[in-house]
Amino acid sequence: MSVPCVCVPREAGEATRRDLAAAGLLDNDHEITVEDGSIYIPVTDPTAAAEHVDAEVVDRDAPERDAQVTPADLLGFEPSYERLGGIAILDEDDGGRARESADALVESDLPVETVVNRASKVKGELRVRDWDVLVGEATETVHREYGHAFALDIATVYFSPRLATERHRVASQVEEGERVVDMFAGVGPFVVPMAARGAEVVGVDLNPDAVAYLRENARRNGVEDRVTAVEGDVRDVASEYEGWATRIVMNLPHSAGDFLETAVALAGEDCVLHYYDIQHEDDPFGPGLEAIRSAAEPAGYEVSVETERVVRSYAPHEVNVCLDVRLVRRE
């Protein structure tokens, strides 16, 4: 049967397959085939797949594949988990159910090597969790997202795969030649794609492990010449980049408001601010906008809202939101 397939060199096959799978574009009903040094990966949406991995899509005969064994097939119910590279992450309060789910995940046809269960909330200045490792040993993995690869260790850094779509939305706004500061950069999921679009990006983070991975990920993705990774509190290094930024990312939703004066100091004459916040669903954007105006207007900026976006639910009646706000200095 002829189906649309992404065609890439064989050596790029596994990375491309993972990228397509992470984006939900992999056709799991048909087999991957190889011929003359090229690999043909069936996809569900040829237009989106071609754009996602920047590769040719061709129609090709691909045999139907045997149905994959899923965790649900083994358990009789659908376990709640998320994938981060080769790690499956559970959020189970019941230890027995967590163990049962972990065993099913590794026995299924999913490419999972390690299964962990959340053992704490995100905590401390470095935003890390405790984990119960149920299967495997390695908490380090490589996560692929919208064509970029991110090495990380979930035991030492914070990373949420749930925010992939939001990160892609923001990065897609960046134009070549921009100057960007990511005030809480982590391992670089905003920094790397922005640099790949031609921006000069400064990523700052308190966590030394995150900064080490940020540097590694810049090299891994071929953008190290456009990335400056800084370990420390952004308030302590802002003076080096005062008035420099055309775009600022503030993805620290519980306390980004404490850093607004620093953001205003970093902003150039015309600067877009991506401000993340957590607020009650009755007024998700008002408090953040008021805080931004209170910091920016006395410093001589006109403030205009470009986008108000609910990113996801956070807790009962609370939402994680993003305000895309433009600051333009008054003449």
TrEMBL record:
Lineage of the species this protein comes from: Archaea, Methanobacteriati, Methanobacteriota, Stenosarchaea group, Halobacteria
A Pfam match: Trm5_N
This protein's UniProt keywords: Cytoplasm, Methyltransferase, S-adenosyl-L-methionine, Transferase, tRNA processing
Name of the featured protein: SAM-dependent methyltransferase
GO cellular component annotations of the record: cytoplasm
Domain SAM-dependent methyltransferase TRM5/TYW2-type: 81-329
One MF annotation (Gene Ontology) recorded for this entry: tRNA methyltransferase activity
Organism: Salinigranum rubrum
Gene3D superfamilies for this protein: 3.30.70.2580, Met-10+ protein-like domains (3.30.300.110), Vaccinia Virus protein VP39 (3.40.50.150)
Any one biological process term the GO annotation gives: tRNA N1-guanine methylation
